[in-house]
Amino acid sequence: MTSTFRTLTVPLDGTTFPGGLPSFLVRDDVLCWTRREAGLVGFGEITRFTASGPDRFLEADIWWRHLVLEAEITDSVELPGTGPVAFGSFAFSKVSSHRSRLIVPEIVVGVRDGRAWLTQMAFDGGPLTEAGARAALAGWLESDAPSAADSAGSDSAGSGSPAAGHGDAGRPGAALPAEPAAAVALKLESGSLSEHDWMAAVTAGVEEIRAGKLEKLVLARDVVATIPEGVNAAAILQQLAVRYRECWTYGVDGLVGSTPEMLIQVEGRTAQARVLAGTLDRRDAEGMAGSPLEFAERVLAGSEKQRHEHEIAIQSLTTQLAPFSEAMNAHDEPFILELPNVWHLASDVKAELAEVEGHVPTCLALINALHPTAAVCGTPTLVAGALIRKLEHMDRGPYAGPVGWLDAAGNGEWGIALRGAVIEAPDTIRLYAGCGIVEGSQPEAELAETWAKFRPMLESLGISS
Fold it and tell me: What is the SS3 assignment for the chain?
């Protein structure tokens, strides 16, 4: 007997949780995608799909479309993100052993354009009711959170088991903590490569670029933090959501972070992306003439190296998106994106999607064509990808891979998993950061840039940087 996938979406009164969605980040096993006070937060899990290899996006797309095809959907709100929803995280590399995943939660709370809603999802078990959905949400908020290792199943988000929980970190409507708890006796150690060895890898990458083998390379490094009192995922997500409001804060199966880069956002037939390439540590402006923003414009927008790196990233995305688009536009000039830790050169791209073989491409089909962009890999892609595997000496896992959500109507938001970390054990979390390497790159400057990019996660862990 085939079970029936049922979903019920009802309105919520957003005034009952004035802190917005961040006030629901109270469990270490929460699924989330938030920006400012809006987005989606999920609790529980009724099913999941995992895959690896070069066809992971298309296999996930087929699974999702099959799941929702005959679903019984009751939706009185009808906004992007209502009805059936899955959260997802995908491996960066097609050769990674890491399992990419789509997770369908039991309960989703959503906020968009000042409207809030509650969705319950289930297989069989009788009709869903508004009272039942509200009771289920209350149950998730009031019960103690299990360890993320328990909730993630046999395949974790990283190389080890995702982390343990600290139970509730607050209640909807409660004030969020202004600062993380002070850490004691913690350790921060180099991961796959020491700083010296990573700078040597940057030098080797620059030599390959100068030899004409590629135009740009993105090299990442990792550091491992050991937190004796335990990694508190809910507190990390709360801190990121409050401090980095202009970024998209994500939490999926032990992968946590706050990314400034949108790979693809699909609403109906409109697709949008935010491309970043070119970075400046805000601390570099201290003592400089003029305002901090004037300094950023002078150093970033006025730098041939930074603009060249940015142009490569824009061209990479628009070239891959063009076959799916009827019309496309991007900023003629990149703008300066101000974040608490860094400035970026940024460009927004918008496209009207065309029908391909009789239907508008899904967001996962677009990701399959777009990932990896030059912003996180390099160009040419195959050459850069092979050199990354040679020089980094690590499997990136979900770092720099797509992370986000999709619904049954084809809408979705997928960022690139940057400024993030993987919780590997109850007291261990692995942080990642990368830099775009071009011919003019200097190893010492690139190393300093990685520390600026580690800062969001370090701050959320209570580690001074």
Answer: CCCCEEEEEEEECHHHCCCCHHHHCCCCCCEEEEECCEEEEEECCCEEEEECCCCHHHHHHHHHHHHHHCCEEEECCCCCCCCCEEEEECCCCCCCCCCEEEEECCEEEEEECCEEEEEEEEECCCCCCHHHHHHHHHHHHHCCCCCHHHHHCCCCCCCCCCCCCCCCCCCCCCCCCCCCCCCCCCEEEECCCCHHHHHHHHHHHHHHHHCCCCCEEEEEEEEEEECCCCCCHHHHHHHHHHHCCCCEEEEECCEEEEECCEEEEEECCEEEEEEEEEEEEHHHHCCCCCCHHHHHHHHHHCCHHHHHHHHHHHHHHHHHHHHHEEEEEECCCCEEEECCCEEEEEEEEEEEECCECCECCCHHHHHHHHCCCCCCCEECHHHHHHHHHHHHCCCCCCCCCEEEEEECCCCEEEEECCCEEEEEECCEEEEEEEEEECCCCCHHHHHHHHHHHHHHHHHHCCCCC
465 domain-assigned: no
Specify if 117 maps to a domain.
Answer: yes
Would you say residue 234 lies in a domain? Answer: yes
**Tens of pLDDT, residues 266-316:** 999 999 999 887 788 888 878 777 788 888 888 888 778 888 878 888 888
Query: Catalytic positions, please?
Result: 216, 261
Domain holding 220, by residue range, is: 5-460
Say what the pTM is: 0.89
The CATH number of residue 115's host domain is 3.60.120.10
How many domains does the chain contain in total? 1
Assess whether pLDDT exceeds 50 at residue 384: yes
Considering the domain boundaries, does residue 216 fall inside one?
Answer: yes
